[in-house]
């Protein structure tokens, strides 16, 4: 069994990855040959637990694990990813599950891909909605063909995110928070795309202004005239993660679970003959992490990663340019 190292114990590391890993049996079976989950974060020390091994540095993590047999969950913020990735590679780690987005911008993406090529890394960006039961059911309808060709896709992602933005978590804009989830699905469902429009707005909290952290939208054009529209609002008073798929013969309206508090999704299939509604369990992150480990062991490899993850970064970068946000400049090597 592959070992596990979680780097970064913020919301993603401690609130999402650790519970999923424990649910999948990692760290809790030393008598069965399952090593503890090794964790490292210089800013957050986890509570003592029998299934955790706390590393005081990345070098310490390499000393108490077998880097060649360990999957690194890189859960640092998108703006603080390249440095720990480089250090981990120098320490011998080669398998990486990287929180979305894969890189903060195209400059850093090129560095990540160069490092991957030079060191022979196996890098999988986190994109749990591609393993979502809701996504699978939408794809099944599309591939079945009974409702005709795809016409358009629309995502609406809304939630209040004032407290986490106020605390600061290295997300540079509203494009980087929820949108990578839906972009990965859009590219998976409708194929490669170009950005034809984008915009964003600030978050206002009392007298404070958080530039470009309030709302964001992007319009994509795929092959055959299919369009995807994605809108995210981090100032909304309600939570929603909705996908609407227009087909020649009907409409699919799906709702992804809004949080881990209730892991059920809903899908409504609407045609001229009526509608069929369904509710079902959809723990997409557990499904994705389980699939990622099968990928790392060679049982069920992803054949389109990190290509889709890289495409997500490029689409977001172009959306930011069209929205008028400053793009980073690559320094000559």
Q: Quick gist of this model?
A:
This protein has nine helices and 14 strands.
Largest pleated sheet: 8 strands, mixed
Number of strands: 14
Give the spatial strand order of the biggest sheet: 8-9-10-7-11-12-13-14
Distance between the termini: 40 Å
| Low-confidence spans | none
Secondary structural class: alpha/beta
CATH homology superfamily of the largest domain: Dihydrodipicolinate Reductase, domain 2
Write the CATH architecture name of the largest domain. 2-Layer Sandwich
User: In the CATH scheme, what's the topology name of the largest domain?
Assistant: Dihydrodipicolinate Reductase, domain 2
Give Rg in angstroms: 20 Å
- The number of helical elements comes to 9
Topology:
Layout: E1 3-7, H1 11-23, E2 37-40, E3 52-54, H2 58-64, E4 70-74, H3 82-90, E5 95-98, H4 106-119, E6 122-125, H5 133-144, E7 150-160, H6 162-167, H7 179-190, E8 193-205, E9 208-222, E10 227-233, E11 235-247, E12 250-255, E13 264-271, E14 274-281, H8 284-296, H9 307-322
Parallel strand pairs: 1-2, 1-4, 2-3, 4-5, 5-6, 7-10
Antiparallel strand pairs: 7-11, 8-9, 9-10, 11-12, 12-13, 13-14
